[in-house]
């Protein structure tokens, strides 16, 4: 197809604009990286800069001193994120399936209950009492997986809409005529046809689990169950304490030399790195899953 002069100009302009927007989005991350390799005194004196006055790896050396703790925290976060995302997708998709079926008598009642949970919640205190006193999940991995993150009403409705708008009723009826059970229809037909929306919801769930620190704050007291986010918060609190007045008077000049600002930037890099690795493999499903699953009906 031959392009006109105006179309070629617009094509070039759109490419240049996208490159510029990509660079603008990438610049803050580059600033964080450079700040993590900047000497603490230089950060305090000159602030953040893409071209630091003096480079230093003190922040990573300080974090390397607790390498075993970070490895365990990474393991906890990976385990919780994997299990939570897998279970969340299974439960969410199974709940959305009957809601999408026109022959299910109570689909509207179920949809109302799901939608109701998006508007109201019991609050922190009742939730804490429920999970710790009655379900006894305090100081367990279940405390990092189940409360607040395992299911979400928005995701249920998103997958339900995808089922309704993209899986023909005739296909389900054909499977029923052939003698397929509901479980067989769900696992052999609905799930394979729903990869885009499941990948999209799985990405959102995975991000929520990876970045979560509230559940550990409420329900976890044993350090071996801390994920990477909680471990980073503890490390930052330790540095702030060591640089406080009482600790500084005991430690002398050593407390003032702690790379607190650079460590913050290094922690941000460590926390976001796995997401940057996983996201490119799922981004092709993101737009399609959101657009198709969000169609009202």
Short recap of the structure:
The chain has 297 residues and is mainly alpha-helical. Helix content is 76%, strand content 0%.
Q: What can you see in these coordinates?
A:
- The chain crosses the membrane at residues 12-37, 73-97, 109-129, 141-158, 190-210, 262-282.
- The protein is mainly alpha-helical and 297 residues long.
- 76% of the residues lie in helices and 0% in strands.
- The protein has helices at 5-36, 40-46, 58-64, 67-100, 107-119, 124-134, 142-145, 153-166, 169-177, 182-193, 195-211, 214-219, 228-242, 245-251, 253-256, 260-293.
- The protein starts with a helix and ends with a helix.
Strand content: under 5%
Number of helices: 16
Dominant shape: flat
Query: Which structural class matches the secondary elements?
Result: mainly alpha
**Largest β sheet strand count, sense and barrel closure:** none
Average pLDDT, all residues: 81
Q: Could you estimate the helical fraction of the residues in percent?
A: over 70%
User: What does the radius of gyration come to?
Assistant: 25 Å
What is the number of beta strands? 0
Secondary-structure element string: HHHHHHHHHHHHHHHH
Residue ranges: pLDDT <50 for 5 or more in a row? Answer: none
Distance between the termini: 38 Å
